[in-house]
Fold NADPH-dependent oxidoreductase.
Amino acid sequence: MNEVTNLLMNHRSIRHFEDKPLSREQIETIVLSAQAASTSSFVQAYSIIGVTDKEKKAKLAEFAGNQSYVAENGHFFVFCADLHRHDIMGQMENKDVIPAIESTEKFMVSVIDAALAAQNAAVAAESLGLGICYIGGIRNDLEGVSELLKTPDRVIPLFGLAIGYPSKKNDQKPRLPLQHIYHENEYKQDEAVYREELEMYNKIISEYYDERTGGKRKDTWTGQIAGMLEKQTRMYMKDYVQKKKMDLR
Ligand SMILES: Cc1cc2nc3c(=O)[nH]c(=O)nc-3n(C[C@H](O)[C@H](O)[C@H](O)COP(=O)(O)O)c2cc1C
């Protein structure tokens, strides 16, 4: 264990922030850390939009299902998959890049790049003593988000990242057992073992909720997640992504 691994293993999402904006220096450190992440073939297929305008933040909070911490934080970032600049680059270099940038592969590259950059930003923020919460809720209404942030074709806002000075800290959420997540040399497919490990984890999660809610909630993890997956959500996504000229072939 060292300072970095301690920091990583001490993560928890923060959903209550002080009313105190991040300094320009903090914002730049966070963005430069994001940019330092590895990027597939040096393609740098993402953009980060910082939102400081109060009305825009309020609108984003509304899109995200009225999550108050989208509006109330130290700074709000939106991470986007971005192949727009690659379209321009093709024109600059007089090369037909369109079939490639409209492929599922390049769509995946841009999403992976954005996620890696975001996690670097999150860790950088936590290392500065700040708290973070990712906000996938903005995908409830990506048409609205695109219009609000004026994103062009080939740019998909993926999630927000609220950062700020924590005013309330949650307990850490226990993760799946390591042996359940980590396979060596081949994927373990013994379903009995799989179920046993999930049952073991269910006990840990039920106890976590029981303690945290004073006995009001005792959800299991499999119950909670299967319940969520039973409902189809944001089914407009494929059409939206394709309308934005990504993932077309
Ligand atoms: C891409 C992504 C989107 C998320 N969206 C939301 C969100 O909209 N609202 C929220 O409160 N938490 C959101 N979260 C946070 C998760 O709920 C949280 O990471 C998870 O429950 C584990 O808790 P922990 O981060 O405290 O360990 C999101 C996390 C990720 C990675």
In short: Residues 66 and 184 are 42 Å apart (CA to CA). The beta strands are 46-51, 75-82, 131-135, 155-164. The two ends are 45 Å apart (CA to CA). Residues 11-13, 15, 64, 67, 133-137, 159, 170, 173 surround flavin mononucleotide (CB under 6 Å).
